[in-house]
Amino acid sequence: MDREDMGRSYDAYFSSGVYLSRYPRPNRRTLRLLAGLLPAGGRLLDYGAGEGRYCFSLARSHDAAVTAVDISAVARQHLGAVAGHLGLSGQVEVCDADDATYRQALARGGFDIVLLGFGVLGHVAGRQRRIALLAELRSALAPGGRLVLGLPNALRRFRARQRDCRALVAQGQLEPGDIRYERPLDGGAIPLFYHLFTAKEIREDLAEAGFTVERLTIESLLPESAVTHSRLLGLLDDGASALLPAPLGYGFLVTASVT
Asked: Rounded CA gap, 255 and 259, in Å?
């Protein structure tokens, strides 16, 4: 599934309102990590910003300058509208991953944090494409800046779909860890691609892209939709996630620095 196809799928996903209803607020563990890493008045590149659940919070709390990138035109329209509503249009720059604004942001560099939130990197098809993207983003970091990733755990996610896709992997149509799946919507379905990660693979891919993993922990034990819907579940999940080893997580939360 190429980027244009994925963009169309997410246009449909956002247009339906289902995405916003599934993930109404930030994951507290991820937001706390970002808030601790980002200096006041710092710069954040949010790649795959979606509905902006992290970038708007940090723009307000840290007076941060944000570049919010998304391949979905519908997501970009939403981000621009919310930025205007919140009075943050001067702080939050919205762009596509292919346009001149994004290229100029990369060239300027100086970002304190580059964020690819839960699942974003997994929607990029092809290991070499993912590594190339990470290497591209590495050049945009300020000295001492951090890459923050939320990644789906292959041990916990889509186990049945992984089994169903083994034949496609054996045929070379998919790479190990890849799946194709659909998100039901109004009697139809949105086709999506996902790559699911192991902790070992994360370290190897980041090393190839020029990063060193500083911390690899659990993003959540429960599904992301559960911990972002219920404040109580989010609080309980946060406490439990701090005590358990990373391979038990629904997703990984990774902090990396330039090697």
From this structure: 13
Number of domains in the chain: 1
CA–CA separation, 23 vs 123, rounded Å? 17
Q: State the Cα angle at 7 between 113 and 195, rounded to 5°.
A: 65
Inside any domain, residue 183: yes
Judged by DSSP in three states, 65 sits in: strand
In a domain, 157, yes or no: yes
The whole-number pLDDT of residue 237 equals: 97
Domain range for 115: 3-254
Over the stretch 22-71, which tens digit does the pLDDT of each residue have? 888 999 999 999 999 999 999 999 999 999 999 999 999 999 999 999 99
The pLDDT > 90 percentage for the chain reads: 88
CATH of the domain at 168: 3.40.50.150
| CA dihedral over 241, 147, 119, 88, signed as positive or negative | positive
Among 9-13, 84-88, 184-188, 220-224, which stretch is predicted with the lowest mean pLDDT?
184-188
In a domain, 166, yes or no: yes
Pairing of strands 178-185, 188-195: antiparallel
Q: What is the pTM of this model?
A: 0.95
Q: How far is CA 44 from the centre of its chain?
A: 13
| Residue keyed to tokens 């290497």 | 135
- 190 closest CA partner among 182, 199, 181, 198: 182
